[in-house]
User: Fold these one by one.
Assistant:
Number 1:
Amino acid sequence: MSAAIHIVLVDPSHPGNIGASARAMKNMGLDSLVLVRPQSHPDPADVARASGAGDLLVRARVSATIDDAIGNCGLVLGTTARARSANWRVLDAREGAAELVAAAESRPAAVLFGGERNGLANEELARCHALIRIPAAAEYESLNLAQAVQIVCYEICVAERAAAVVPPGGRAAEPATADDMQALHAHLDRVLRKASFMHDGNAAQLSARLERLFARALPDDGEVRILRGMLAAIERGLRPAE
């Protein structure tokens, strides 16, 4: 089973959905389940709904923050039930699965699923390189959490089987880790403040727009090093912020 693609459930409130998600994962050959702030785990209800996938629940990693859950990952995709602005790159489940499988060849990748009531918060979506949206009937678009996990895991399974018959080689460099991207954003914010380009009045909006720009660009390790080297050189040439 694949441990390179993490299925990350953020703020799951119903233990039955955790168990059903574990079963969906095991059906499709995935075994890395991460729970961020679960309301109840372990719980008899999740074990019952797992129906033979209890080993995934035992091995599930419980994290207090998104940063801890995805820190070592390169590509991170988030799921959404709502249409988003043009600043987001939005994929269907098949497209997202193909990208996850390709990225996981050299570095762990993750797909985030939000809680049953409100989905992923904006600050959680901001950690994603792109979004997955599962098309559904316009009059009732909301999917159950475990159902959404099942659909995405199925597409990952299909993509993995397709990739297995493609000769390796010629793959693009994988994106930098989430931790490295956070360090880049912090470095950029610091330099922009020293240059008086960013200030308290525009910091939140500007920082969010720059995060989206870099998420669409998917910089790799070497590109992040180049960018941080450029920022370091600029920083040395600036006067200390007053």
Number 2:
Amino acid sequence: MYAGVEGLAHVCPHGHVPPALLADPGATLGTPAELFVIPDHYVFRMLYSEGVPLEDLGVPSRDGTPVETDHRRVWQRFCENFHLFRGTPTGLWLADELVNVFGVEEKPTGESAQRIYDHLEEQIARPEFTPRALLDRFDVEVLCTTDAASSPLEHHRRLHDDGLGHVRPTFRPDAVVAIDGPAWPGEIEALGEASGMDVLDYGSFIRALEGRREAFKRMGALATDHSVTVPRTERLSDHEARTIFDRALGGEADGNDAARFAAHMLMEFACMSAEDGLVMQMHVGSFRNHHDALLARFGPDAGADIPLATEWTRNLRPLLNAYGDDPRFRLITFTLDESTYGRELAPLAGHYPAMVLGPPWWFFDSPLGMGRYLDAVVETAGINNLAGFNDDTRAFASIPARHDVWRRATCDWLAGMVVRGLVEEEDAPEMAREFAYGLAKRAYRVPETTYATR
């Protein structure tokens, strides 16, 4: 089964590769430290947990804390501690990238670090290792980035002009919905600038969002993305929504206002998705920036995000009652609470036509995590109510490795089902192809392109 899916094109409908990396034909992957260590919270959180300061790893600070600027020293610390990744999915991805993408022939250690660094520098400098060249080498059929609602999308515009329309933006409005955040006034100003209108009240706020969604669609967007701690949904009256928004503009919104407004906006975004066809993604259950001191020194995304218990059945009921059987609407859900897979998410997706389950995410994007996910959801939801796989990566060079882990894990799981007599052997290869390719294309409504047959 694996031989039948190993060479399929990669469908990457959700991730965080910066579009600037691909928009500039002259861009490079940077130094080995910039490629593998500095931007990757999967990597530096493990090193930090074992006492390696983020300053020593070159992670940029926002409070002026001096950090290591010699990338060879950063790489040395990484290689000296490479053994910490044994048995982890990060270790699998790193090893696969080093060997299969960059041709590294020895294990990273303190002794081999500088030889590997020299080899990687030579490889990265070659024209076949530019980001655009690797996009072709990786056989990426579609790659969706994640972009703020206020993004001018200038990088995507250049990609389109250069014929790379299979790199598509994704509309993420979290920053303009967080009305109690200190950055919210600036985010609203940026939204107004991007939309070409003054956002002075709730009505103009909604019109600006609708305008930005249309701009994203013109650049090829397939989906929206919403990161929330709790998947609470609630329809406010127009008067309530306007009143809360006005309080926020006056700097008077409190935590209750923020929670109710966020719940209401999920309903609004679902309504917009039903109207404009953008698939709605919901990533739920991360306690962001758990470590206060680290947040103060290094800002968000510093490896201190921790999963939370989540309740879906009651929280999603208003949204699913309104749009769950609307054929125009699609909702893909992701969770960091594994206990909800079989208890809530699979039964919900097994009933509501609009709901699809995203793959095991973040902490569970691993061989064992994938197996637990499949065991928990397929019996109730089947496989056609799953969204296949997306790599959700910032590390561009890890894309083939992450998809390969999923393809191996799903084939292994299917083989076990065949051996136990739960899946017919003649059906398993087709199911493997669906897991690897077909489910993601249908879940995200990826149009057929010339890239599908490369």
Number 3:
Amino acid sequence: MHAEPSDTASPLDAVRIAGWADELRAMAAIGLLYGHDHFDRERYERIQTMAAEMLALAAAPGDTPEAVRTVLARDIGYVTVKVGVAGAVLDRAGRILLLQRRDSGLWAMPGGWADVGDDTPAAMTAREVREETGMEVHVDRLLGLYDSRRRRFGHPHHLYHIVFACTPTGGEPRVTEESRAIAWFTPDHLPPLAVSHLDAVHDAFRHWADPTLPAVFD
């Protein structure tokens, strides 16, 4: 019997395809930034198109090359690794605050992309927690810096995820426009987690039990 061809990549293949495509589109963007030869620019533009098609193949069902190209077009100039921040908010009982994402239905720590501006990563994390959960927090310390390629996030962009350990100081958890639900969880009763938050959530519980542990990286 011959195996039927598949229109979708396996999870591992999708991660590898996304990684290759992200490198290609970054190289092409840098080439377009510094290149002046007409033929070279045409080649770089073709590489960007191919990278978008590869990313669409590795992305969620329904994502088209055109939609991916629209996202990638926002990266101008010298393309670098993207940065995201998140808050591991644990209460005195050792429970972590998680929200269920509207886009995927998976659960994650509150957080988002790091914005360009005057805020520090810690201040951005406190703001993201407040906006996404209604909770005020004190950012205690760096929990970890996670490399999306090493951790196999499956994200189309190469990402550094900065996670801070936080203590709640006020407010009440509430559902926002970006979440379906919000709740506190113990390590023995975790919901289905987003892959990009899986390691950090487990690290957060370990660090809560032993605050002397060093920050995680890579």
Number 4:
Amino acid sequence: MLVRIHIGRNRLPAALAATRSMEAIERIPQEVFRVHEAVSTLGVMRALENDPLLVIADLEDLQDCPKMSRPALRTALDSLGRDGAVVVTSGQFLAEPDRWVGEALLACGLRVGVRYLPPRMVMITNYCGGVGKTTLSLALARRFRQASGLATALVEAGVGGSSLKARLPGRHVSLYEVATQNAEAGQWEDVAVYPADNWEADVLAADERTPKALQDIAHGHTLTVFDTFPTNPLWKHIVGMATDILVVAAPRQDSLVQTEAVLRRLKDETAALHPAPRVHLVLNQVRTMGERLLLAGQLSTWIGYDERRANHLDGALTEPLLNLVYPGWGKRKPRPKAKQKRNSRKPAEAAKCTAL
């Protein structure tokens, strides 16, 4: 995938190729990175002064230098990775080059990185009602579409009637019609929406065309958001597809009990999946600092209570969620330092002022 970044060549983020794999070096997009190469441990250490955001390093293949031991270099690379840089071997890079390039770009605040990443399938769920699953699903899909301009879909797998049909204006083609009649999905804010009530989900769960229909939706969009209730018949299909699962809780006792139940269930059901989806615990509707301590040690992120934003499906609510799904999403490019104004006075005048 070719993505051009319209900034000066000297300001492009740096990549370091500390490998003898020419294939890996050639897969680093030259229009995106300034590429530095090194073949010795000391050369790699010196190249780190360029602050690379992508490091492809095969430490065992490097020439060992007395001034920089391999263990010391490994420690330096581990520290660089903890600071947000992407550090991988040539084998890891060649297996998923787009993924690592995308994550490195996001790490420096360039959201164009999402164009490199493989599709994300995000499941938003909990047993408890009233925690904001549908609100966050709508706001998340809308925000991603507006911020990235990339194809986005929202699929409903809830309980009872269709919440999407009740909340969105106009008539929208259902997931049932798409899967069984090849109907074209409706649009809301340029997001493809697939509402479904519980009866439709029951029928779809027994239909052999359903898995392909869900896969087609996911593969046709950069981000697919599933608003899912655990008792929905499509639950198992969606868990098997998800790259990220956001368990949304509220700081209420009933919600916390139900949250523990769904986390236990997910632990069992995702254990056999390869790759397993990333499970994130999100505390929504937070009013006080004390409420954030209710899930201390388990919490991935939290969202403050803001009724106005929730009613307007304000995408700003979901920035913390996008940062979980796309690590680095919330970073911003550093603003260029303002140039100091030169002293416009004549040398003699400047000297006179200094004397005073």
